[in-house]
UniProtKB/TrEMBL annotation:
Residues 1-20 form the signal peptide. GO terms for molecular function: cellulase activity. PROSITE patterns: GH9_2, GH9_3. Its EC number is 3.2.1.4. GO terms for biological process: cellulose catabolic process. It comes from Handroanthus impetiginosus. InterPro entries: 6-hairpin_glycosidase_sf (IPR008928), 6hp_glycosidase-like_sf (IPR012341), Glyco_hydro_9 (IPR001701), Glyco_hydro_9_Asp/Glu_AS (IPR033126), Glyco_hydro_9_His_AS (IPR018221). The active site is at H336, D387, E396. Gene3D superfamilies: 1.50.10.10. It catalyses: Endohydrolysis of (1->4)-beta-D-glucosidic linkages in cellulose, lichenin and cereal beta-D-glucans. Keywords: Carbohydrate metabolism, Cellulose degradation, Glycosidase, Hydrolase, Polysaccharide degradation, Signal. This is Endoglucanase. Belongs to the glycosyl hydrolase 9 (cellulase E) family. It is an enzyme of class 3 (hydrolase).
Amino acid sequence: MKVLYSYFLLLLSQFSFFAASYHDYAEALSKSILFFEGQRSGYLPADQRLTWRGHSGLGDGWMVGDPIIDHNCWERPEDMDTARTVYKVDAPNPASDVAGETAAALAAASIAFRSSDPGYSETLLRTSTRVFEFADSYRGAYSDNSDIRAGVCPFYCDFDGYQDELLWGAAWLRRASQDDSYLNYLQNNGKTLGADDNINEFGWDNKHAGLNVLVSKEVLESSKYSLQSYRASADSFMCTLIPESSSYHIEFSPGGLIYRPGGSNLQHATTISFLLLVYANYLEKSSQTVNCGEVSITPLKLRQIAQRQVHYILGENPKGMSYMVGYSNVYPQRIHHRGSSIPSTKDHPQTIGCKEGSIYFNSSDPNPNVLVGAIVGGPGEDDEYEDDRADFKKSEPTTYINAPFVGVLAYFVANPNVIKKVFLSLVKEESLSSCTKQGGRGCVIGFVGPPIAHGP
């Protein structure tokens, strides 16, 4: 009877594990894209789905504003009346970081449009080439220009140098054009521009980890061994995430979230998850693994780490909260977002000025407008999250948190069989862990149950 009872309890525990781990990736993907409709500026299209937003910035260019003034105001984008300052850099002044990143974006976009709009794709590639030539010819950080620095610092300075963006731009131009001159550029400039620095970060200001993963494709799939140092750096980065490796040093919270100090922690979880999936694909296609000294890491292991981060963000965490707004029934209600926290122009047509919005910033009420799909900065090293609008390091959503997560979820949706295999391997590991804790008695390995729903 005791054996039967133990067996029943174990079945329940395995069912609970599966139920807690099921997520509707297609729903999450759709909502992660919807978030960007809340960030639109200009005249909104007729098919705008977040209807609480209105037209804004109609007299502006793009990416404009004064960070000091803007941060001192709490007002809707539809009411913005502060200075919309525009800055530019041209020869002979340097802007290798901004221009290198722009070249990379244009080159990547040319790949995306190649089949659907070849003419536009070619235009993007030509423009990318010219922008990269400017970036490389006048080397330096854009924020080092004296007439710009006061307008962009301390918020948007180049903190980590411009060198990585030059390599990043060259890598994407190589990918888009297959021009060997960019291959030579990566080989000849890698050392001087810091490709060997093993900086284990990928974000808006630092491209090193992403650069190494991207260039590794040339080594793994095309045998370009002159770029082996990039592959070695990519391997080294992966090993920092593996507890069994002697190189392991990236922190995880007690609940399993990748953690790096500095705030907006989920930017690291989403970008690293994206790189894990990309590198796993490169390794699998070339039948390779990552050698971490004592252990050999398979593509499956990298995907497991990525899936755990996804599940944490979507609600499988100590707080039982989805950190994506609008996904599941429990998510942040007081996000640090002006448009979301102030009544919409439809509900409150009168202008709400710069300081008049403070009453909404300081309110303890939930935001009146739900910014569906927004991923907040998230918890820190202790897994705690207080849902406090004033705590911007935890409650502020950003485009650079959401963007890589769109890629992660798109991969999950497009490769259900691969992700199912990853999930079942995690179920098996959890089962084995339960068996070990119970001394191996009454164990059922890999039991799975039906999925559960996650809200509307």
